Amino acid sequence: MNHAEIEAIVEVHRKAFGETEGEETAQLAKNFLDHPDTISISVKRDGQVAGNVLFTPFVFKEHPDAICYLLAPCGVLPEFQGHGVGKELMETSIEHLKSIGADAVFVLGVPTFYPRYGFLPTDKQTPYPDLLTAPEAWMELALTAGKAKKLSGKTKAIQQFMRAHWWDTSGRG
Ligand SMILES: CC(C)(COP(=O)(O)OP(=O)(O)OC[C@H]1O[C@@H](n2cnc3c(N)ncnc32)[C@H](O)[C@@H]1OP(=O)(O)O)[C@@H](O)C(=O)NCCC(=O)NCCS
Q1: I need a surface site. Which of 5, 6, 35, 153 has the fewest CB within 10 A?
Q2: Quick one: which of 100, 32, 34, 150 has its CA closest to 140?
């Protein structure tokens, strides 16, 4: 991915998440894009990146062979929100994750948006289970039913996503 593409994606997240969360989410996206195993899916409108979603590896320590991802961040430029870009991002990326044989995808996010695409609240652990004060925000989409069901125990995100701050839901509205 070239520099201009990276900048366009980072800018989408900066603007999508607004004044309070935009800058730190943009920085997170930039850090994720530096990771070789990050999957990036973008949707374009009028020749520009209108929305982007990133997926980073998520590991169950007792099940190292399972292929799991964390979905974050997912953002659409404010001027394109409400016109199907988010839907296209979700549908395209779920198809892609299925095609590469992923077992499950996890997200800590808006509990009214992700269930539209099959995500359900899950009792599997975040890397910081004690900080999950809003369990309805922690969701899973199982892609390989049998294997995903067996996953349990401690989990780990990539190093750039292991800051406790990202997993603490106590400040979320
Ligand atoms: C959430 C977001 C990614 C959705 O993208 P979008 O392009 O506006 O969504 P779409 O127009 O494709 O809408 C798809 C569906 O989701 C619904 N939807 C959109 N935003 C929603 C939200 N915040 N909460 C719940 N439902 C939402 C739409 O009503 C639509 O439903 P329908 O298919 O029944 O009509 C986008 O609004 C955004 O970037 N918001 C700010 C950042 C953010 O909150 N990201 C998610 C954090 S976990």
Answers
A1: 153
A2: 150
Helix 18-33 with 3-16: angle, nearest 10 deg: 150
pTM of the model: 0.97
Give residue-wise pLDDT tens across range 100-135.
999 999 999 999 999 999 999 999 999 999 999 999
Which residue's alpha carbon is at the smallest distance from atom 16 of ligand 1?
113
Q: What span, in angstroms and rounded, lies between the C-alpha atoms of 25 and 173?
A: 17
* Cα–Cα dist 155/126, whole Å: 6
- Is the minimum distance from the CB of 111 to ligand 1 under 6 angstroms? no
Q: In order of start, what are the domains of the chain with their CATH numbers?
A: 3-167 (3.40.630.30)
